[in-house]
């Protein structure tokens, strides 16, 4: 498997929205909260190509992630993979890439999403439970 990162440009919005919807649909439907219009508005509000990278496997885009730099830490805003690309080590590869920056990382995961198990396996600890999301934090070793 050949993994690479590719830059995001403004024209990528629609393709990234489709990928986000595909990745989140099952979890959101289970919670009765699937709404394509809300998905579009949320991605539009957080669409910052300079913080985003496509995940490319063997020449095909299979996901993307967004890392927002904050003072003294990073915020992982998005990590979405197509369902066909999940469970193949791509998410772990991203975690290694982001953790290599050596800064604390915060993120939120949708309740009842399989992502919660993924983040816990990668050393994130729960810092707050909200109605729809669970907030996590990872700290680098001193």
UniProtKB/TrEMBL annotation:
The record lists the membrane-crossing segments as: none
* InterPro entries the UniProt entry points to: Acyl_CoA_acyltransferase, Bact_Acetyltransf, GNAT_dom
- Write down the EC number: 2.3.-.-
Which keywords belong to this entry?
A: Acyltransferase, Transferase
- Coiled-coil regions, chain positions: none
Residues in N-acetyltransferase domain copies: 3-142
Q: Which CDD domains match?
A: NAT_SF
Q: What enzyme class is recorded for this protein?
A: transferase
Per the record's keyword annotation, is Repeat included, yes or no? no
Q: Does the keyword Cell membrane apply?
A: no
GO MF term set: acyltransferase activity
Pfam families, per database record: Acetyltransf_7
Instruction: Supply the PANTHER family for this chain.
Output: AMINOALKYLPHOSPHONATE N-ACETYLTRANSFERASE-RELATED-RELATED
Q: Which protein are we looking at?
A: GNAT family N-acetyltransferase
Species annotation: Pelomonas baiyunensis
Its organism's taxonomic lineage begins at:
Bacteria, Pseudomonadati, Pseudomonadota, Betaproteobacteria, Burkholderiales
């Amino acid at each position: 498997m050949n993994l690479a990162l590719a830059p995001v440009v403004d024209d990528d919005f629609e393709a990234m929205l489709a990928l986000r919807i595909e990745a989140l649909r099952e979890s959101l439907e289970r919670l009765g909260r699937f709404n394509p219009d809300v998905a579009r508005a949320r991605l539009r509000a957080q669409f910052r190509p300079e913080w985003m990278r496509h995940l490319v496997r063997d020449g095909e885009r299979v996901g993307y992630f967004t890392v927002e730099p904050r003072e003294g830490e990073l915020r992982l805003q998005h990590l979405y993979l197509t369902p066909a690309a999940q469970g193949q080590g791509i998410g772990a590869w991203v975690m290694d890439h982001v953790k290599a920056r050596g800064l604390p990382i915060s993120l939120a995961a949708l309740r009842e999403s399989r992502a919660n198990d993924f983040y816990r396996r990668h050393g994130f600890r729960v810092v707050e439970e909200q109605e729809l999301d669970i907030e996590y934090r990872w700290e680098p070793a001193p």
